[in-house]
Design brief:
about 300 residues, alpha+beta, eight-stranded mixed β-sheet, 8 strands
Length: about 300
C-alpha cells in the first residue's frame, strides 16, 4: 500500500516528493528529524489530493527506501522484530517515529558483538548464497536471524478469513484447489507465517468451509490463481499466502449446526469485513470435528 501511494504522489506532485526524498537521503541532516518530516510531508501531499485513507509512509516504508538507497548503512525494519528484540534484551521501546533509529543501533550491536566475531557463521552463509552475500555486509543476515529466531517461533495467532459468495466463487476455488492467497483488509501487521485460519463463507449457508495456515506475510499481488473467480472487482491487491490444510467444501461446518456450541458463542464471523481475530478454541473445535488431531 505504501508503494501504491508513492506512485500516485509521484504522478501528481513529483517535485515535492523528490525534495522529501533528497532530504531523507541527506546524511548531513538529523536522521530522526528527516524521518518525521518525510512522514508528515507525504501525509500533507496525500491529503492535498483529497485522499481519505492512510498514506502508509511509516517507519517500515522509510526503512525500505533508505535500505535501497544505502544498504551498507541501513536495513529493512519491521515493528514486530523490533519490539520482540527489545523485550528479549529487557529494554524500553522507543517513541513512535524514533524506533527505526533505535532498531539500527540494536542491529549494529548485534553485528559487532555476535556476527562479526563468528567466522563459522559468516563462512556458512557465504557458501550457501555466494551470489547474494560476500561476507562483508551483515545487515540482512542480522535481520534474518531475528526473523528465524523470534518471529517464526513466536506464538501462533488464529484468524477468520471471510468471503461473500456474491463476490467470490469460493465453491469452485476450493473444489479445484485454486486458493493459495487471501485478501487482507485488516490486521496486516499482525498476520504472520504459521498462523492458523478458519475460512468462513457468509450468505445463506454460512459456515466454515476450510481450515488453513498462513504461508507468507501480506504483500501486493495483482494476479492470483483464483483471480478469474471474482464475481465483482477485486479492489484490494494486498494478499497473504495461505495453504488449505482441511478442505471442507463438500461437508462444511454450518453456523446453524454449531451456534449453540460454547466454543462459538463469541465467534466474530458474519460481521462486515474480511479478516477477524479468532481464538485457539474456535479454531480447534472445527479441527476436532474433522477428526484431525489438535495442532
Amino acid at each position: 500500500m505504501g508503494v501504491a501511494v508513492i506512485y500516485e504522489i509521484t504522478k501528481i506532485k513529483p517535485e515535492e516528493l523528490r525534495a522529501l526524498f533528497k532530504n531523507l537521503f541527506d546524511e548531513s541532516k538529523d536522521f530522526n528529524r528527516e524521518n518525521k518530516l518525510f512522514d508528515k510531508g507525504t501525509l500533507n501531499i496525500y491529503k492535498s489530493l483529497k485522499k481519505p485513507h492512510s498514506h502508509h509512509q511509516d517507519e517500515r516504508s522509510i526503512a525500505t527506501y533508505l535500505t535501497y538507497h544505502n544498504p551498507l548503512k541501513y536495513t529493512f525494519y519491521k515493528s514486530s522484530f523490533y519490539k520482540k528484540y527489545c523485550t528479549l534484551l529487557g529494554i524500553e521501546i522507543a517513541k513512535k517515529n524514533e524506533r527505526y533509529v533505535h532498531y539500527l543501533e540494536l542491529i549494529n550491536q548485534l553485528v559487532e558483538n555476535y556476527i562479526k566475531p563468528d567466522s563459522n557463521l559468516i563462512s556458512t552463509v557465504k557458501n550457501l548464497i555466494p551470489d547474494y552475500y560476500d561476507g562483508s555486509n551483515h545487515n540482512l543476515l542480522a535481520q534474518d536471524i531475528l526473523y528465524q529466531m523470534m518471529d517464526k517461533n513466536g506464538e501462533t495467532n488464529y484468524w477468520i478469513f471471510q468471503c461473500n459468495p456474491d463476490s467470490f466463487d469460493y465453491e469452485n476455488a476450493l473444489k479445484n484447489n485454486l486458493i493459495d492467497t487471501w485478501t487482507v483488509s485488516a490486521h496486516k501487521d499482525k498476520i504472520k507465517v504459521g498462523d492458523k485460519v478458519i475460512i468462513w463463507v457468509t450468505g445463506k449457508n454460512t459456515g466454515c468451509y476450510a481450515l488453513a495456515q498462513v504461508t507468507s506475510e501480506p504483500e501486493i499481488k495483482s494476479n492470483t490463481k483464483d483471480s478469474a473467480l471474482w464475481k465483482t472487482e477485486d479492489k484490494n491487491p494486498l494478499k497473504v499466502g495461505i495453504e488449505i490444510t482441511h478442505n471442507l467444501v463438500s461437508n462444511p461446518i454450518l453456523l446453524n449446526d454449531i451456534k449453540e456450541i460454547a466454543e462459538f458463542e463469541k465467534l466474530k464471523a458474519g460481521n462486515q469485513g474480511t479478516n477477524f481475530t479468532a481464538t485457539q478454541e474456535e479454531y480447534g473445535k472445527p479441527l476436532d470435528m474433522t477428526g484431525s488431531k489438535p495442532e
